[in-house]
Design a protein that fits this description.
CATH architecture of the largest domain: 3-Layer(aba) Sandwich
Radius of gyration: 19 Å
Structural class: alpha/beta
Distance between the termini: 48 Å
Number of helices: 11
Largest sheet: 8 strands, mixed
Order of helices and strands: EHEHHEEHEHEEHEHHHHHEE
Helix content: 40-55%
Shape: globular
Bound molecules: 1,4-dihydronicotinamide adenine dinucleotide
Length: 289
């Protein structure tokens, strides 16, 4: 199967790894050459780590790497059977890219979005053939997280939904089919997790490291809410909160936080930028102060 991935950032590069590991011929596209180079270098590091842990051998590493080509022209995705978009969480930009993409791919190519919070119906509406559009929502880090939400829009055909579910299952993922509502399942449940943690911090009840420690040590979570926001990216996480808040007609349950807005405005995105709630070294490891 030929798979085109649009956007080689956190999610796009992870999804490319998943598809390539399952034997798909992947083309990973980005407008930013630096992002493409970074994705390639990161994959090399990840695969080397897997070799060190004895999970794969050198032959498997070469096979996975050879299954991915890095391209900077959207036209190069023209022979895709499935495309998954993972670019910036902005409806207008996504719509523009989808419309252009549709002019290159064949009629039966499935066009999917990895959006966390935008309506699949509105993304699909940019296409000549909206029935080919579906949400395929991976979690970060895509190679490790088992769950993938598949979201049919009102326009999505049954055949496209079935094929998408089958494909993602063949990539050894667990599929949850969710309705096209803001945040789908996981991101909706997660909003109060981040939101209440931020409110506790803003009200001076505890520091963010104390909140993280409490949620991990006593709450049983693998990461605290602030560690998780830094991991996801404060820019991405804030935008998702804003979108879900607006999509639920400004229901105060989903109200975004100024603390996170300011971090995002300052470029303190978290792990990927070296600074967020915490500081990180070049390998993305938390620096303890
Ligand atoms: P990111 O910021 O790490 O990567 C986005 C990439 O898209 C960048 O490399 C950028 O150069 C590229 N890009 C931007 N505009 C482009 C365009 N017009 N054409 C081609 N490439 C373009 O973002 P991330 O975190 O990978 O998020 C991507 C999507 O995945 C968003 O829709 C986000 O909501 C969703 N998502 C993010 C998760 C996360 O934990 N970060 C989890 C699940 C979904």
């Amino acid at each position: 199967m030929n798979v085109g991935i649009i956007g080689s950032g956190t999610m796009g590069s992870g999804i490319a790894q998943v598809a390539a590991t399952s034997g798909c011929a992947v083309k990973l596209y980005d407008t930013n050459q630096v992002a493409l180079d970074k994705a390639k270098a990161n994959l090399e590091k990840i695969l080397n780590r897997l070799i060190e842990k004895g999970r794969i051998d050198a032959e498997e590493k070469t096979r996975i790497q050879n299954n991915i080509s890095y391209v900077n022209n959207l036209k190069d995705l023209s022979d895709s059977n499935l495309t998954i978009e993972a670019i910036v969480e902005n409806l207008d930009i996504k719509k523009k890219v989808f419309l252009e993409l549709e002019s290159y791919v064949s009629d039966n190519c499935i066009i999917a979005s990895n959006t966390s919070s935008l309506s699949i119906a509105s993304i699909a509406s940019s296409l000549q053939k909206p029935e080919r559009c579906v949400g395929i929502h991976f979690f970060n880090p895509a190679p490790l997280m088992k769950l993938v939400e598949v979201i049919p829009a009102v326009q999505t055909s049954k055949a496209v939904l079935t094929k998408s579910v089958e494909t993602i299952k063949s990539w050894k993922k667990t599929v949850a089919v969710a309705k096209d509502t803001p945040g789908f399942i996981v991101n909706r449940v997660a909003r109060p997790f981040y939101g209440e943690a931020l409110r506790i911090y803003e009200e001076g009840i505890a520091s963010f490291s104390e909140i993280d420690a409490a949620m991990k040590d006593v709450g049983g979570f693998r990461m605290g809410p602030f560690e998780l926001m830094d991991f996801i990216g404060n820019d991405v996480n804030y935008t998702v909160t804003e979108t879900v808040f607006a999509a639920f007609y400004f229901d105060p349950r989903y109200k975004p936080s100024f603390t996170q807005k300011r971090l995002s405005e300052a470029g303190y995105f978290g792990r990927k930028s070296g600074k967020g709630y915490y500081d990180y070294d070049d390998n993305g490891k938390k620096i303890s102060i």
